[in-house]
Design goal:
There is one protein chain. The protein contains 18 helices and 20 strands. By secondary structure, it is an alpha/beta fold. The strands form five sheets. It has an eight-stranded parallel β-sheet, with helices on one face. Belongs to the glycosyl hydrolase 13 family. This is Alpha-glucosidase.
Length: about 600
């Protein structure tokens, strides 16, 4: 493990309620999707040596932690989130020696490394699952197996144990002829869910986690960790199974019901997380645990992240990420700033007493925020809205997460053909909704994919204007595994690095502000002008210091709302402006005029 070079918050400043303050209280995390970050061997897939080669860029940006999406050995059915061996590196990404080198070089620069932990499920090619297919093997109960419905032929349509559908399309049950039973998979049929009710499963997971911690990593980001506990009736049956005491929900338009209400934030989740803390992290220092938390609301976030409860340091909540999506996500709705503000406000208020927030708009599963909630129709609008959204996110209370390329204002891929997509969820959704259930037209579904497909975030990192954006050599023997966004000629790190007005330069300032300004890192949060349709305003307060944050999330000039104007108490001087998406002089004129121009954001010290 390593110590960061940035200033630490004094213990006189309260953060998440722990004493002393955790090291990550004023840290910024940067997520790397290794497959798309930097390719060094010309095979079209990013690798660990590529990440190591870019550490100076990341150190210059100022980030404190790198979160790596999975690099374990995997069949790559779901781009590495289907793990076949937790204690080896997939040859696509390199070797364990490459991982050790990355750790050493990152630590030498004061950067910590957090690895993805995927333990709700494994690959169906994991040795545990192969053994589990034999009912007489000690691993027989390591996964969730069920027989066919009574009176039905195993493997026949309708013989599944219940009507649950996978989030990736089709049934959530897969029949295995060798065992003669079905196994549960909430995601891909090659991602069987582990049975966390079995203590042997938990012991094996904790042993693996300890192996990595002893190797020198600094913690884990835990994939869908809030889905490890399922709801069972008193007889051990799942909802909707024959004879179950718990009724399932009705089936939806695609012909399946959802396992989500019964597999998210289940009854033993807190117990499992406390046990994990004891068995893996107790006695260690300098680590970070963050859980991806489907099904968890702001109130539960406070409970799980309260340090007194000894579960996780922080969670990724998703209630705010549904903005712009219908139910299901492929049915698009217009962006509603007040709805987003309301969800973020709930998260902030819930941890006012204890606990902590993860702050994010982008990751490997989300479209690019500048295309989603901003405006990428022109270069000026893209830069302005990328800065506005960055300012908004980073000025909330919590730990900000930057997804690779977000600091450049990278946009959605704008793919126009289905064969350009690689994402399993997207391809399955097109087949299920367009070809099988026929609930969406091909044209409508293509619009949905262009807006919210996960592949929008997975196109290669845009380093420069060369043929493959600097992700791989222009004359590499293999093309990138997914197409480079054509706009890389205009949007890339090389063109922004020395431009003081670039999105990249603005993100450097945001990161430095969190490191150096205790009000930004730990000040209390209070919403202002909560009824305004365009301006998102709030204050951050620590002792006698108070900041007013104003962000216009629209493409037109708007009036500063009344509560904010009252707090400004007349014209704000340029010297009071802490940071602004445009120049400080421009912001001072805007404030004097009582307005914010399109996508303008400003922080004023009151």
């Amino acid at each position: 493990m390593t110590d960061s070079n940035r200033p630490q918050l004094p213990d006189s400043v309260r953060t998440n309620g722990a004493t002393p303050n955790p090291w990550w209280a004023n840290a910024v995390v940067y997520q790397i999707y290794p497959r798309s970050f930097q390719d060094t061997n010309g095979d079209g897939i990013g690798d660990l040596k590529g990440i190591t080669s870019r550490l100076d860029y990341l150190a210059d940006l100022g980030v404190d932690v790198l979160w790596l999406s999975p690099v374990y050995r995997s069949p790559q059915d779901d781009n590495g989130y289907d793990i076949a061996d937790y204690q080896d590196i997939d040859p696509l990404f390199g070797t364990l020696a490459d991982m050790d080198e990355l750790l050493a070089e990152a630590h030498r620069r004061g950067i910590k490394i957090v690895m993805d932990l995927v333990v709700n499920h494994t690959s169906d090619e994991h040795a545990w699952f192969e053994a589990s297919r034999d009912k007489d093997d000690p691993h027989a109960d390591w996964y969730i197996w069920r027989p066919a419905r009574p009176g039905m032929e195993p493997g026949a349509p309708g013989a599944e144990p219940n009507r649950w559908g996978s989030y990736f399309g089709g049934s959530a049950w897969q029949y295995d002829p060798k065992r003669g039973e079905y196994f549960l998979h909430q995601y891909s049929k090659k991602q069987p869910d582990l049975n966390w009710e079995n203590p042997d499963v938990r012991r094996a997971v904790y042993a693996m986690m300890n192996w990595w911690m002893d190797r020198g990593i600094d913690g884990f980001r835990m994939d869908v960790i809030t889905q490890i506990s399922k709801v069972y009736d008193a007889n051990g049956r799942l909802p909707g199974e024959e004879g179950s005491l718990i009724e399932d929900y009705p089936v939806g338009e695609e012909g399946w019901s959802s396992p989500f209400p019964f597999c998210s934030d289940g009854p033993r989740l807190d117990e499992f997380l406390k046990e994990m803390r004891r068995e893996v992290f107790e006695g260690r220092e300098g680590f970070l645990t963050v859980g991806e938390a489907p099904g968890v609301d702001a109130t539960r976030n406070e409970q799980i992240t309260d340090p007194a409860n000894k579960e996780l340091d922080m969670l990724f909540l998703f209630d705010h990420m549904g903005e712009g999506e219908g139910r299901p996500k492929w049915e698009l709705v217009p962006f509603r700033m007040p709805w987003l503000r309301g969800k973020l406000a709930e998260q902030q208020r819930a941890v006012a007493g204890a606990g902590w927030c993860s702050l994010f708009f982008c990751n490997h599963d989300q479209p690019r925020v500048v295309s989603r909630w901003g405006d990428d129709s022109t270069e000026g609008a893209r830069v302005a809205s990328a800065k506005a959204l960055g300012l908004l996110l980073h000025l909330h209370r919590g730990t900000p997460y930057i997804y690779q390329g977000e600091e450049l204002g990278m946009t959605n891929a704008h793919f126009t053909s289905l064969d350009q997509y690689r994402d399993l969820e997207s391809l399955n959704a097109f087949r299920q909704r367009v070809e099988e259930a026929k609930v969406q037209t091909p044209e409508s579904m293509m619009r949905s994919l262009a807006a919210v497909s996960r592949d929008n975030a997975r196109t290669p990192m845009q380093w420069d204007a060369s043929r493959y954006a600097g992700f791989t050599a222009p004359d590499a023997p293999a093309e990138p595994w997914i197409e480079v966004n054509p706009n890389h000629a205009q949007i890339n790190a090389a063109s922004e690095f020395d431009d003081p007005d670039s999105v990249h330069a603005f993100y450097k300032r945001l990161i430095a502000l969190r490191h150096d300004n205790p009000v930004v890192a730990a000040g209390s949060w209070e919403l202002v002008d909560g009824g305004n349709e365009q301006v998102y305003a709030f204050t951050r307060t620590l002792g006698a210091r108070r900041l007013l944050v104003l962000v216009n999330l629209s493409g037109r000039t708007v009036d500063i709302p009344p509560e904010s104007m009252e707090l400004l108490d007349g014209d704000a001087e340029e010297s009071q402006i802490v940071i602004a998406t445009r120049s400080a002089s421009h912001a001072a004129v805007s404030l004097a005029n009582g307005e914010l121009t399109a996508w303008e954001g400003v922080i004023v010290e009151l």
